[in-house]
Design brief:
50% strand; five-stranded antiparallel beta sheet; 31 strands; globular; four-stranded antiparallel beta sheet
């Protein structure tokens, strides 16, 4: 046993003359986070329609002949008994291609599959099936007319009693519109895709380090430039169409068309952190609640190398107009894998490579919610429920709802209950009462006080 190295000894135990892996036992107080939905393949991306609340999640096993399918699942969210549930209403087969990245604009989907960007359009319809009851069924109904009749969910029986049964179900139709090649590296992988605010442009980033800008929906390429020396990890677009890119070359860049505006340095005021100790992982623009003219940018920095003693990850907040740093905070020692921002910009969602999920308050970058190893494996994408009338209806008595997807094929739901707060007038009233009480006590103790 003494000849074995320290790394192996730290992960094994010596038992009956042999080194064995320890049995990991889950603590009694820790409960498994409930699943919202489970697919038949690994999930890599998720998007939610703001108007309908329709959830689209996709992934797969790729081209390898492992028997794992590739596809998109369209899910309907419903409030049942005060709890949010999801049910599959359509499955779209993507053949031998796994969807790794996705962007949503109205009913258009831009899906990154291998080295290409596939443009799809889906439409929702209500399928009505009317079936006339047969003679035997009518006789059976007349015989058992006194017995209570059970109504199946989704089946509407007309009050006229004509014997016709109408079944209404939601139907999704998906069309494949166009395919463009968005990456020319040997890895053949589109890493990220985003629409601009008015849906007139689509921006893709690939493993080759190139940014491509396409007119939408015609998909005419207008820009194609080298943004990073290594693959692009993430990108986002500001309301004035500035593009921010994050690469594995330690750089975070802001572009106006194909011209570099500035490069960000999150550790500029942290002399104790060398430039190449961390790299950028994610970037997202976000609104500021109650201030429509203000814009924020959020970036996540993770350690470039794994150390025996894990280094903390950082999240930074920037002014979204002049790109000056505003605040940087540590966000734990689990390596961050993805970032999401709520519609109002109030909350930030973080997923980790170990499957944990956290929600932060964007104003202070303080952690509000945390579930350790909710998935137990790398989280690939996050999406907040939209803060639209339909989204608020689905959230119920919660301030925010976040859905996470991972390689374990699961969708899991994370809720932030509405935080109780005191009205301003009540706080002022209490302060006034306290002042009055203090004055009365002082007068009683010192009659000549006033």
């Amino acid at each position: 046993p003494e000849s074995r190295d320290n790394d192996k000894r730290s992960s094994l135990i010596f038992c009956h003359g042999n080194w064995r892996s320890p049995v990991r036992r889950r603590s009694m107080g820790r409960r498994k986070h409930p699943e919202l939905y489970r697919a038949q393949f690994p999930l890599y991306t998720i998007k939610i329609s703001p108007e309908s609340g329709l959830v689209i999640t996709a992934g797969g096993g790729g081209a390898a002949k492992t028997g794992i399918k590739n596809g998109m699942h369209f899910l309907r969210l419903e409030q049942i008994g005060g709890q949010l549930s999801a049910s599959q209403i359509h499955y779209h087969d993507t053949e031998t291609r796994a969807t790794m990245t996705m962007a949503l604009a109205d009913n258009f989907i831009a899906a990154g599959q291998d080295a290409s960007c596939h443009i799809l359009r889906y439409s929702e319809a209500v399928r009505k099936e009317e079936k006339r009851a047969g003679k035997k069924e009518k006789e059976g109904n007349s015989v058992n007319s006194k017995a209570p009749r059970k109504r199946k969910p989704g089946v509407n029986v007309p009050e006229s009693g004509g014997g016709n049964v109408r079944n209404e179900s939601q139907e999704i139709v998906v069309e494949n519109l166009k395919v463009v090649q968005s990456d020319f590296s040997s890895d053949e992988l589109q890493k990220c895709v985003r629409f601009n605010q008015d849906r007139s442009l689509l921006v893709t980033g690939g493993a080759d380090g190139f940014i491509k800008v396409w007119e939408f929906p015609g998909m005419k390429k207008t820009l194609d430039f080298k943004a990073h020396d290594l693959e692009i990890e993430d990108l986002d677009i500001s309301p004035d169409n500035k593009i921010i890119t994050v690469g594995r070359d330690f750089k975070c860049c802001v572009w106006k068309k194909d011209q570099l505006v500035t490069g960000l340095r999150w550790n500029e005021n942290m002399d104790y952190i060398p430039d190449k100790m961390y790299r950028y992982q994610s970037c997202r623009f976000g609104k500021v609640e109650d201030n429509k003219e203000t814009l924020r940018l959020y970036t996540v920095q993770i350690p470039y190398k794994r150390e025996r003693k894990p280094l903390p990850c950082y999240i930074s907040k920037w002014d979204g107009k002049n790109f000056l740093p505003l605040l940087t905070q540590q966000c734990g020692k689990e390596v961050i894998s993805c970032l999401a921002v709520s519609d109002s910009g109030t909350f930030l969602g973080l997923g980790t490579v170990t499957g944990s999920v956290a929600i932060y308050i964007s104003f202070s970058l303080q952690r509000l919610y945390y579930v350790k190893e909710a998935h137990g494996i790398v989280i690939t994408d996050l999406a907040f429920l939209p803060e639209t009338p339909r989204g608020k209806q689905l959230m119920g008595n919660n301030e925010a709802a976040l859905i996470s997807v991972a390689v374990d094929s699961c969708c899991k739901l994370h809720l932030i209950p509405i935080r109780s707060s005191f009205p301003v007038w009540l706080v002022l009233l209490l302060c006034a009462l306290m002042i009055i009480v203090v004055i009365i006590l002082l007068q009683h103790a010192f009659p000549e006080f006033l």
